[in-house]
Write a structure and sequence with these properties.
heterodimer; A: 251 residues; alpha/beta; 10 strands; B: 286 residues; 1% strand
Chain lengths: 251, 286
Amino acid sequence: MKKFIIENLSVRYSDNNESLRNINLEIADHAITVLFGPANGGKSTLLRTLNRLNDLADVKEMSGRVMFDGRNILDKTEDVIELRREVGMVFSRPVPLPLSIYENVAYGLIMEGEHDKKKLDDAVESALRRAVLWDEVYDRLQDSAYAISGGQQQRLCLARVLALEPEVIMLDEPTSALDPVATAKIEELLNRLKEKYTIILAPHNIQQSARMADYAAFFLMGELIEYLPGREMFLTPRDKRTQDYITGRFG
Amino acid sequence: MERSRFSTTLKESFGYTLVHLITLATVIPIIGLVGYIIARGAPAISWEFLTAAPTNGMRSGGILPAIVGTLYLTLGTAIFSVPLGVAAGIYIAEYAPDNGVTRLIRLAIINLSGIPSVVYGLFGLGLFVNFLKFGTSILSASLTLSIMTLPVIISTTEEACRSVPNSFRVVSTSLGASKWQSVRKIVIPQSTPGIITGIILGLERAVGETAPILFTGAAFYLPQLPNSPLDATMALPYHIYVISTSVPGMPVQIQYGTVLVLLVFVLGMNLIATIIRARARAKRVW
């Protein structure tokens, strides 16, 4: 099953900084799709298009179609707030909101209008368990989210997304600020989560891309160069540019 | 080689000493001034001075009507300028599109805070006292002071909102919060200390001003306290002006005492603002 069907997508910012040119890509559900390539290739832009977070940025031009569950999410009529609950996002640096651990996880639900204490409690516990953080924080849920380590904060950010019961989880260089142990924890977690969710991951290095990819898409200067199953991509890439990047000739 | 390094050190320590001396030169007059006023004014302060009306043509008795009047004016100014100023600041920081009109508004606000206070007084006289027929009253004076205070409150509120990291807004939005929810749940709580500081600094300016209330609400002498917003009132800054220039044979002690009371008002507010800021900074996570 395809979760996203992206057709002829082009995005340009008003400062022409990073853009996407004519992207065609289908993203499979219950798998990890890795977006990789050198910086400014358009990975973040694509992620921020899929949950319309780009609306906050200075986008000059956006054309093409992005079909999600049978509807074009680029339509003016799209309910972007509902979309962001379905397509959650984890950022490169852990950014806990300046609230308690509990409030961070419950944040999205409270914004949705959920005020039932019992339901919130259950949702927070369940999300923290799925993010494998519960055992480390269950006795200090009311502490500031800044009182825990960077690795824990990033799992908190994941739990925050999971609490909304999304269909898709996007992660933009989620381990770039973490040490190898914390990174391994996140990777292990993602491999478990892909059974239930569609995961789109933009790793910050090629090694992680190769480790994690069920499918991989190589982006260069705003263009999608190649899209293959992960194993194929990193063992036998077809495009010369992909080969050069994977073997370290540039990047 | 040795010598040039030595001279660099020498230059540096000379520079430091110079900077320290300059700092000292700015601080000493302030401390001196405050110390002098305390020394000269403190003997005048008594329970009676703070709680009785002036007698004998203001040459004896207390300054209660002026204290109460200043409190009323501060309160009145706060009622008008705080909601409006905070709302405007939040709007400009969070909602206003970054275009020519917004820049023009911001420019106007900055220029407003540079206008001499006597001009505000004349504007208040024309608009509130005469045109709207509020008369010489607490209402007119409060409205005039509000217009003077607004730019301070608007620009500090805007500044406080802007200092909240944008990543919080992005994260909040990505979790399905609407614009207003992000502002209400994250931006406003995070900028509240800054906003309160701005409010206090704005009101503090209003407390000490004479010119804007001169034509709009200040009375030379009133035997009783005002009992309606449409009454004129005595106020500390104007009272100081009056007893220093218009009352022959005024005891110097009462003049210094009155100045001391006004100074305690203003410095007290300043102190509160400083404490709020320091406590917020210590608690802040970003």
